Amino acid sequence: MDKNGKPMGTTAGAVSREVGRLLFLRWLDQYGSEHPGEPAPLSEFFPEGRPSGHPEVLWRDLIRGLRNEGLILCFESLEFWSSSATLTDRGRAELERRQP
Predict the structure, then answer these.
(1) Banded model confidence at residue 1, pLDDT cuts 50, 70, 90
(2) DSSP secondary structure letters along 9-46
(3) How far apart are CA 23 and CA 59, in angstroms?
(4) Class of the 14-97 domain?
(5) Which of 19, 25, 73, 90 has the fewest CB atoms within 10 Å, counting from its CB?
(6) 32-58 confidence digits (pLDDT tens)
(7) 84: Cβ contacts below 8 Å, ≥ 6 apart
(8) In the 8-state DSSP scheme, what is residue 6?
(9) What is the pTM of this model?
(10) 88, 73 Cβ separation under 8 angstroms
Protein backbone atom coordinates (compact mmCIF):
# COMPACT_ATOMS: atom_id res chain seq x y z
CA MET A 1 0.00 0.00 0.00
CA ASP A 2 1.38 3.39 -0.86
CA LYS A 3 0.96 6.48 1.33
CA ASN A 4 -2.39 7.20 -0.28
CA GLY A 5 -3.72 3.78 0.67
CA LYS A 6 -3.61 2.42 -2.86
CA PRO A 7 -2.55 -1.22 -3.21
CA MET A 8 0.96 -1.79 -4.52
CA GLY A 9 2.02 -4.84 -6.49
CA THR A 10 -0.27 -7.38 -8.04
CA THR A 11 -2.38 -8.31 -5.03
CA ALA A 12 -4.23 -5.93 -2.73
CA GLY A 13 -4.61 -8.28 0.25
CA ALA A 14 -2.13 -9.19 2.97
CA VAL A 15 0.90 -8.32 0.84
CA SER A 16 -0.20 -4.70 0.48
CA ARG A 17 -0.93 -4.43 4.20
CA GLU A 18 2.54 -5.77 4.96
CA VAL A 19 4.10 -3.25 2.56
CA GLY A 20 2.20 -0.45 4.31
CA ARG A 21 3.40 -1.66 7.71
CA LEU A 22 7.02 -1.72 6.59
CA LEU A 23 6.70 1.64 4.84
CA PHE A 24 5.38 3.26 8.02
CA LEU A 25 7.93 1.57 10.32
CA ARG A 26 10.82 2.59 8.05
CA TRP A 27 9.51 6.16 7.91
CA LEU A 28 9.34 6.29 11.72
CA ASP A 29 12.89 4.93 11.94
CA GLN A 30 14.16 7.56 9.50
CA TYR A 31 12.25 10.36 11.24
CA GLY A 32 13.67 9.26 14.60
CA SER A 33 17.24 9.32 13.28
CA GLU A 34 16.71 12.83 11.88
CA HIS A 35 14.82 14.14 14.95
CA PRO A 36 16.15 12.23 18.00
CA GLY A 37 13.75 12.16 20.91
CA GLU A 38 10.84 13.70 18.97
CA PRO A 39 7.71 11.74 18.11
CA ALA A 40 6.83 11.90 14.42
CA PRO A 41 3.66 13.85 13.57
CA LEU A 42 1.40 11.61 11.46
CA SER A 43 0.66 14.61 9.26
CA GLU A 44 4.26 14.51 8.01
CA PHE A 45 3.77 10.95 6.75
CA PHE A 46 0.94 12.29 4.59
CA PRO A 47 2.39 15.56 3.24
CA GLU A 48 -0.38 15.93 0.64
CA GLY A 49 -3.02 15.73 3.36
CA ARG A 50 -4.54 12.87 5.22
CA PRO A 51 -6.14 10.08 3.23
CA SER A 52 -9.90 10.11 2.95
CA GLY A 53 -12.61 7.49 2.61
CA HIS A 54 -11.60 3.85 2.75
CA PRO A 55 -7.80 4.52 2.65
CA GLU A 56 -8.20 6.65 5.79
CA VAL A 57 -9.79 3.73 7.63
CA LEU A 58 -7.09 1.33 6.39
CA TRP A 59 -4.22 3.58 7.50
CA ARG A 60 -5.81 4.35 10.88
CA ASP A 61 -6.34 0.63 11.51
CA LEU A 62 -2.81 -0.20 10.35
CA ILE A 63 -1.24 2.41 12.67
CA ARG A 64 -3.36 1.32 15.62
CA GLY A 65 -2.48 -2.30 14.86
CA LEU A 66 1.22 -1.47 15.04
CA ARG A 67 0.57 0.20 18.39
CA ASN A 68 -1.36 -2.83 19.66
CA GLU A 69 1.53 -5.10 18.65
CA GLY A 70 3.95 -2.93 20.61
CA LEU A 71 5.93 -1.92 17.52
CA ILE A 72 5.18 1.78 17.93
CA LEU A 73 3.99 4.19 20.58
CA CYS A 74 1.14 6.30 19.25
CA PHE A 75 0.30 9.50 21.07
CA GLU A 76 -3.27 10.04 19.94
CA SER A 77 -4.96 13.39 20.15
CA LEU A 78 -8.67 14.01 19.82
CA GLU A 79 -8.18 14.26 16.04
CA PHE A 80 -6.32 11.07 15.05
CA TRP A 81 -4.37 12.68 12.20
CA SER A 82 -2.96 15.28 14.60
CA SER A 83 -1.38 12.45 16.60
CA SER A 84 2.28 11.48 16.66
CA ALA A 85 4.16 8.19 16.91
CA THR A 86 7.57 6.78 17.64
CA LEU A 87 9.22 3.44 17.03
CA THR A 88 9.69 1.13 20.02
CA ASP A 89 12.69 -1.14 20.59
CA ARG A 90 10.47 -4.02 19.51
CA GLY A 91 9.60 -2.14 16.30
CA ARG A 92 13.27 -1.44 15.62
CA ALA A 93 14.07 -5.13 16.11
CA GLU A 94 11.27 -6.01 13.67
CA LEU A 95 12.82 -3.72 11.06
CA GLU A 96 16.30 -5.19 11.59
CA ARG A 97 14.91 -8.68 11.19
CA ARG A 98 13.48 -7.71 7.79
CA GLN A 99 16.61 -6.07 6.39
CA PRO A 100 17.97 -7.81 3.27
Answers:
(1) very low
(2) SS--SHHHHHHHHHHHHHHHHHHHHHSTT-PEEHHHHS
(3) 11
(4) mainly alpha
(5) 90
(6) 999 999 999 998 998 888 888 888 889
(7) 39, 40, 41, 42, 74, 75
(8) -
(9) 0.80
(10) yes
The CA distance from 65 to 97, in Å, is 19
Q: What share of the chain is helix, strand, coil (3-state, %, to 5)?
A: 50, 10, 40
Rounded-to-integer distance, Cα 14 and Cα 91, Å: 19
Main-chain dihedrals φ then ψ at residue 99, nearest 5 degrees: -70, 140
Roughly what angle, to the nearest 10 degrees, separates helices 89-97 and 14-34?
A: 120
